[in-house]
């Protein structure tokens, strides 16, 4: 009961309103909570004092006796009003209520005279601004238009549509605008219906398309679309994004106007009106955008909490709306200022208060506001403090042990130590925000803690709290100490051979190197003890070329990182340039200038080469042609000398035939691999006379092979010594398998044709 009644909350908050000039106005505000509760009002952030014109009622509401948009002194009762409630637990501020004066301007669009043929469409429009939005009605011949007639459509924005015109529709029209501020009449306009309905074809045409609208949820949107044509076009609606329009809350007014009731944010989009010629794909389109706004509303309200001193309090406030609302936090009615121990996160939706104390006890409010409206929610922070809690731990000291370790020690509190169940050590980098703090729990009998895994050369802050089952002590004094520095870690080193005298050393920057000032590079021939270097390189350098090296030896390259604490361990690599030299000898680098010059003449060389090749081919063809002709002439001379006396067969068989110095054995050996003369070809080339048909055909050889020297000897046989001699082949013995003797291989021609 105490927890509930200690809350201070609004039951009724003031709301937006439109006030009438010289009429009274009441703004309501009702609060519940622990009494006494004080209620006050503000307008535009300024306190309202009771006066004859404005004063507060007993229930906390504000009464304005005679509302005036503009007073004689230049002041106005228009503005943003809020209600503030306060008790001894804190202060609460209501949402802002926007109060505006009811007004009505003159008509800025009046209906215009129109002459339309029978069966056509007439449209009249009048526009006027006012608060609240004026209601516009139409009169014909000084009488209200009959809205029961389906051919008459009245749209909320002051539009009158008449379709399927008839002669009786002719008349004088005007509109009447009404709201709580005034009543006004527009100018008159005459409608004349002429002729009879025409049967001439007319393409579909949209006279008026939808306007761009910005409305609020739960309102009604009317998207106008009026089309003409002959035949009468069919009007249809769609969304540009392809999503279905739906059916719930959707209605068609007249012949094509789209009305959407009870708007939601999902109705936002671009709507397309299409006028289609019946039975065809002929169409005309027009489009307009609909933007639906939603006032800010809470998805998650902040909750009142109670926390012990020194702990962390977190409030969460999540709001939604269209456009997305902005969130502001108040503390006891004042805008909350962030600090080291008060942080806002997640677009102000999360409020965190670290290391709370009694001064943080208050009412915290979350205000969500956008162009469609505002809302607020509140929660109270209660800081728990129990009597008899331990006093803060004493004599907190921190000593650096190494680059990553600090030892923290303390002494027990001076008062109320019997109920202590343990200590909590709070650790944070001195440069980090409070929310980056972390804790380590320590038993009640331990008065020192070794904190490890710290970063070198970094300052840390420490404080201690003693805990009991009823809460924690206040924090001890904060002590700050830095870890020792350490030398950097070993860098990773890579060696790349550039050419026969140069190598490139590269390394990768890494956070593992720690804080370092730069690098030192050394190199030497492996058989020498003296290094060349160090070459000092800045911390942002990651490569260095070592030049003028000897390609015949192996080199050792060493790299290390250093800082103010000294040199780190080095990384060593060995490299040889000998393989590069060998590759250069085997694959010499191109002479780019020479190649460029060669390229310039390559085209000419190719053309000359082609000409030479063609010339050679022509000469070869001519050579073959004349050679074949000479062969025919030679054979003809041979035919004339076939009457030469023949050598007796016995003599031929005994001695054999010797041509060009080759024995028959040599010739037989040669016939196995050489070219053989086809006797049929000789018969075709040299037709035999009757006296010559009995003669046998012989074999002519133009070459003989000298086997011992493996050379080809060529001799010439004069034509007058040339003769064809018949030779009977010797019978071959049967093979070991008793098969028939093999036939002698035919001679396919001379070895030297022509």
Automatic annotation (TrEMBL):
InterPro entries: FN3_dom, FN3_sf, Ig-like_dom, Ig-like_dom_sf, Ig-like_fold, Ig_I-set, Ig_sub, Ig_sub2. One of its GO terms (cellular component) is membrane. SMART domains: FN3, IG, IGc2. Residues 8-100, 105-192, 204-287, 295-382 form the Ig-like domain. It is found in: Membrane. GO terms for biological process: cell-cell adhesion. The keyword Membrane applies. Residues 644-654 have a biased composition (Polar residues). It is a single-pass membrane protein. Keywords: Disulfide bond, Glycoprotein, Immunoglobulin domain, Membrane, Repeat, Signal, Transmembrane, Transmembrane helix. It comes from the Eukaryota. Residues 392-486, 487-583 form the Fibronectin type-III domain. Its main location: membrane. The chain crosses the membrane at residues 606-626. Residues 663-673 have a biased composition (Basic and acidic residues). Residues 644-754 are annotated as: Disordered. PANTHER family: IMMUNOGLOBULIN SUPERFAMILY DCC SUBCLASS MEMBER 3, PROTEIN SIDEKICK. This is Immunoglobulin superfamily DCC subclass member 3. It comes from Bombycilla garrulus.
């Amino acid at each position: 009961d105490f927890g509930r009644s200690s809350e201070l909350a609004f039951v009724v908050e003031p709301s937006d309103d439109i006030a009438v000039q010289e009429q009274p106005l009441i703004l309501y505000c009702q609060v519940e909570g622990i009494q006494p509760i004080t209620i006050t009002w503000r307008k535009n952030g300024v306190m309202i004092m009771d006066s004859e014109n404005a004063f507060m009622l007993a229930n906390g509401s504000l009464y304005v006796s005679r509302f005036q948009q503009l007073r004689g002194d230049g002041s106005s009762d228009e503005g943003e009003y809020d209600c503030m409630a306060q008790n001894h637990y804190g202060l609460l501020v209501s949402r802002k209520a926007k109060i505006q004066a009811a007004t009505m301007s003159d008509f800025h669009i009046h209906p215009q005279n129109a002459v339309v043929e029978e069966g056509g469409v007439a449209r009249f429009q009048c526009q006027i601004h006012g608060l609240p939005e004026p209601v516009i009605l139409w009169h014909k011949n000084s009488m209200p238009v009959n809205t029961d007639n389906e051919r008459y459509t009245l749209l909320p924005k002051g539009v009158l549509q008449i379709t399927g015109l008839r002669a009786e529709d002719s008349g004088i029209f005007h509109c009447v605008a009404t709201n709580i501020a005034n009543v006004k009449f527009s100018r008159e306009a005459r409608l004349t219906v002429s002729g009879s309905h025409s049967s001439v074809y007319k393409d579909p045409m949209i006279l008026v398309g939808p306007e761009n609208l910005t409305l609020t949820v739960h309102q009604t949107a009317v998207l106008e679309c009026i089309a003409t044509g002959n035949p009468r076009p069919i009007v249809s609606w769609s969304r540009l994004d392809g999503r279905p329009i739906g059916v719930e809350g959707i209605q068609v007014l007249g012949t094509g106007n789209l009305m959407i009731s009870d708007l939601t944010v999902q109705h936002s989009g671009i709507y397309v009106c299409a006028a289609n010629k019946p039975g065809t794909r002929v169409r005309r389109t027009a489009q307009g955008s609909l933007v639906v706004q939603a006032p800010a509303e809470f998805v998650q309200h902040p909750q009142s909490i109670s926390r012990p001193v020194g702990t962390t309090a977190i409030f969460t406030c999540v709001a939604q709306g269209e456009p997305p609302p902005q969130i502001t936090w108040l503390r006891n009615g004042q805008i909350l200022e962030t600090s080291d121990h008060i942080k806002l996160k997640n677009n102000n939706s999360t409020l965190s208060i670290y290391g709370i104390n009694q001064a943080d006890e208050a009412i915290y409010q979350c205000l969500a506001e956008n162009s469609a409206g505002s809302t607020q929610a509140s929660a109270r922070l209660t800081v728990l403090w129990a009597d008899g809690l331990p006093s803060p731990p004493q004599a907190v000291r921190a000593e650096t042990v190494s680059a990553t370790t600090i030892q923290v020690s303390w002494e027990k509190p001076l008062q109320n130590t019997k109920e202590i169940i343990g200590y909590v050590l709070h650790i944070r980098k001195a440069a980090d925000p409070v929310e980056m703090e972390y804790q380590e729990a320590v038993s009640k009998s331990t008065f020192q803690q070794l904190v490890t895994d710290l970063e070198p050369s970094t300052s840390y802050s420490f404080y201690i709290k003693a805990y009991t089952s009823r809460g924690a002590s206040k924090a001890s004094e904060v002590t700050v100490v830095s870890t020792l520095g350490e030398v950097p870690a070993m860098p990773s080193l890579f060696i790349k051979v550039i050419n026969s005298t140069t190598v490139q050393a590269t390394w990768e920057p890494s956070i593992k190197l720690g804080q370092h000032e730069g690098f030192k590079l050394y190199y030497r021939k492996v058989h020498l003890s003296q290094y060349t270097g160090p070459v000092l390189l800045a911390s942002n350098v990651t490569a260095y070329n070592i030049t003028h090296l000897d390609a015949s030896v192996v080199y050792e390259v060493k790299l290390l990182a250093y800082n103010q604490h000294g040199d780190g361990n080095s990384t060593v690599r060995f490299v040889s340039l000998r393989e590069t030299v060998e590759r250069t000898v085997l694959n010499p680098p191109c002479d780019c200038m020479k190649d460029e010059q060669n390229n310039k003449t390559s085209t000419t060389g190719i053309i000359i080469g082609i000409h030479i090749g063609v010339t050679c081919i022509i000469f070869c063809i001519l050579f073959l042609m004349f050679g074949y002709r000479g062969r025919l002439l030679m054979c003809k001379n041979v035919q004339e000398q076939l009457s030469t006396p023949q050598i007796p067969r016995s003599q031929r068989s005994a001695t054999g035939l010797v041509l060009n110095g080759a024995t028959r054995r040599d010739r037989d050996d040669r016939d196995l691999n050489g070219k053989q003369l086809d006797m049929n070809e000789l018969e075709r080339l040299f037709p035999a006379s009757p006296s010559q048909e009995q003669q046998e055909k012989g074999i002519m050889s133009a070459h003989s092979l000298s086997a011992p020297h493996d050379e080809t000897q060529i001799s010439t046989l004069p034509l007058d010594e040339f003769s064809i001699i018949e030779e009977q082949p010797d019978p071959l013995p049967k093979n070991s398998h008793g098969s028939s003797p093999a036939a002698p291989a035919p001679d396919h021609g001379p070895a030297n044709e022509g």
